[in-house]
Amino acid sequence: MTFTLTIDGSVTEAKADERLVDLINRVGVKLPQVCYHPQLGPIQSCDTCMVEVDGKLVRACATKAASGMNVSTKSAKSVAAQGEAFDRILGNHMLYCTVCDNNNGNCTVHNTTKLMAVEHQKIPFKTKPYEVDNSNPFYRYDPDQCILCGRCVEACQNVEVNETLSIRWEDPHPRVLWDGGKPIGESSCVSCGHCINVCPCNALMEKSMVGKAGFFTALPKTALAGMIDIVKGVEPDTGYGAILKVSEAEAAMRESRIRRTKTVCTYCGVGCSFDVWTKDRQILKIEPQDGPTNGISTCIKGKFGWDFVNSSDRLTKPLIREGDKFREASWDEALGLVARRLAEIKAGNGPDSLAFISSSKCTNEESYLMQKLARAVIGTNNMDNCSRYCQAPATMGLFRTVGYGGDSGSIKDIENASLVIIIGSNTAEAHPVLATRVKRAHKLRGQKLIVSDLRKHEMAERADLFIHPKPGTDLVWISAITRYILDNGLANTSFLERWVNGLDEYKKSLEPFTMEFAAETCGLPIETLKLVAQMITEAKGVCVLWAMGVTQHSMGSDTSTAISNLLLVTGNYMRTGTGAYPLRGHNNVQGASDHGAMPNYLPGYQLVDDPEVRARFEAGWKVKLPSTKGLDNKEMIDSIHQGKLKAMYLFGEEISLVDSNKNFVEEGLSKLDFFVVQDIFFSDTCRFADVVLPASPSLEKEGTFTSTERRIQRLYQVLEPLDGSRPDWRIIQEIANRLGANWIFKHPSEIYAEIAALTPLFAGVTYERLEGYKSLQWPVAPDGTDEPLLYTKRFNFPDGKARLFPLTYSEPSDRVNAEFDLHLNNGRLLEHFHEGNLTYRSPGIREQTPDTFVEVSPALATERGIKTGAWVQLVSRYGKVRVRALVTDRVEGKELYMPMNSSESPVNRLTSSFTDKVTHTPAYKEASVRLLVLGENGDSPLPRGNPRFGHRTPQRGVEAERKWQRPDYRVPGSPMIFHATKRKPNRNGG
Ligand code: SF4
Ligand code: SF4
Ligand code: SF4
Ligand code: FES
Fold first, then answer.
1. C-alpha 803: how far from its chain's center?
2. Neighbour-count burial of 520, counting CB atoms closer than 10 A to its CB (0-12 exposed, 13-18 middle, 19+ buried)
3. Is 160 in the pocket of ligand 1 (CB under 6 A)?
4. What's the pTM value of the predicted model, to 2 decimals?
5. In the prediction, which pLDDT does 976 show?
6. What's 376's DSSP letter?
7. Fewest CB atoms within 10 A around its CB: which of 233, 474, 691, 694?
8. What is the pLDDT of residues 812-850, one digit of tens each?
9. Which ligand lies nearest to the CA atom of residue 429 in the structure?
């Protein structure tokens, strides 16, 4: 719906629900608006956007356009109000732009001074009685420069929802507060960077920018102060106009040396995109703008975890094993050796004696080339990637029931759900930016949240209902509530009739899953199970999110299937706010599988044993292709032990640390005749290699990644490859060519053109359609139409109908007994990614989270006399590790939790070789240990500066109303005290 109104005398068309400020911006009228940020909504703290509407002053950011309105942005009243408001801001901020690291053309305070043609400020700048806070390793806060706009508070409270920041408007000299007044480094701040990303000036700034961005900003403090005094000294005579011109000339000079390049995060599967600011090889900052997934959001890793790129221990020379040592070699020699040995082993033992492992950190194009090398050049389907270690069971569950192995919708669809259920996922730490959207919907829009987990992590603490089933029993309670829903006439029968096959057989399979059986098996009260069923059936839309707490079990595929069955029975597919969301772990684990790095699928999940599919690829690649499924990761290790698999080529994958039962894997790797490892560092896995090839990380190459939302995004080259290293796709191509292929790809876009030509799922993907921040969510039709929400018209089976899949339950593996009496759970930690190869190279992250640990419950700690910091030994049926204890009520009773970020004490020394029966994903989460207290006490493995020791201060946002209630507040342009009632007061009083 549209309607008209008048802005500054011009009749203008407005959209329904449009904010006046957005409309004014859309039609190109210039209006000051310091605190407004479209992704934050109206904060109403700065008053600079005052306009006259039908004779009354209103804030344009907080006023909705209405039919027939007469809006004046330039009336004497509005201009006076805007001027007065901005004067108050300048009273809080010293304009020293020429020597300011924020003088980069995008400073809101600078630009507003210019827009309003301010020559002299009426309210003089006054310092605030606070010191600069430098206590966080990554950023600093300068209260003197803080204009109290509250954007940071809004971002922290209502976008990130970490609820660290507030402003106590009642204070004589308000400032931004961390945990109500703690140093940043002792607060609950998780260093996500949201606050810095929205700060309109230099009050909050990345330390990597300070003294680095400007030509004059690196001067010593005294010299800087002198320059600032000179600038201030001339202001009364020259006015700000002349001074701003000088600073703009300096800002323009910066353009020549600071580059801003778009990339996509290299860590988790959320798929955040942002600009990387660089000066030569220095990374100045990460600036998220309006990425399709993340908007202004980042987490600590995406925002600050990039030091590894310039780490001094990057590999820059190929290495060749000589006995127990490695020697440096030229690229020519190393590649020659790789090609010769692969060819020899193929000739001597056949193509299936070789195996290839692709990287879930590298690009789609690189996975495609790796599987093409395996299949078209060597002639084997022994090809896999690390989705085997995490997400293969979820993919299987969805293939069985709805037909596509990916999330059913986008993060926006999750936001639209009225109920979100999170099972076996520590979302706030493993998928931080995605978690923010759930936390926000829960906090601001009344979305309900159920969490099922062994640990009381942040999402569990926030949940309306937290359930803690016995380990490995999720399938039982999910199936029991599905049966209860069917038995009690609560199922969505019209949906089942129209869209779902297999109900009768499925119902029969549910017979054992009574409420009593579930209560007994899972240790959950029947009333709780009924409450879960009730919340699901009463919700307008349900999204289920799950991750490795489900998939890394011996019943991972079946539990994933049970989730999808439940969604089908309750009609929770085919519309926004519904669906299945297995959260992908690595940045490109979805893409690696999508692009054929699997033993049974060519790219786009086209079966290797389908003759039609093979014929298409054979014609495209001009070779004969192998037709039987190859070995997966687990089978590869078994096959080495059996003496059948002789050679392996692996890139960007830390198999020796992340595969389960490390001792068994290490033994296997050391038996290989020939092992090529390609990585950016000398990883743990490199220890077993014969040749190590130095590769380049994502910032040094182009390509595409596919996020958990099935979203394909381009990354651009931020830096030249470090001297001596090469992008993975170039290395793979070189090896293929030395083995007789004649590949001539000059750029990843050419590789994608080949993928699109052979793969219906990606038929319409082109680099042009992915330019800049554009993205596509597969499937992509030839005309470029994509599907952000799947199954809006049909399920992905020939008859368009979904399928209920009958299931049975079997007991978990590696169970506790008298000897191994404790259950060991394991997983990720916010600050580190996976084993920590990248994040440990960030000094700030290392400072906050230096090591792994084992979480011990208060009850067990009391029973065994364990204190935080005590060294303990964990012994499983497969190995042992020495680790420090952290006593916490995040875990209960005889359940332990160990983060996976350690190469010295890796949790996989303790895990078994049991796997999910269907996909061979290791049952990492099924491990039993005994614990020996070693009698040595150390420091806490988490320093006091770790945000887990902070105390959040939740409130509804900036709460500008409290500012308006100050006795000294007056609406600019009016003698009246302004009282407003729009938002509720905060929970902490004030
Ligand atoms: S958690 Fe810390 S970095 Fe993130 S928005 Fe809040 S104060 Fe800023
Ligand atoms: S620190 Fe916060 S309140 Fe201060 S200027 Fe920056 S965003 Fe605004
Ligand atoms: S690690 Fe994940 S959530 Fe964090 S910035 Fe990267 S993609 Fe986003
Ligand atoms: S932009 Fe409207 S009050 Fe700040």
1. 31
2. middle
3. yes
4. 0.95
5. 52
6. I
7. 233
8. 999 999 999 999 999 999 999 988 999 999 999 999 999
9. 3
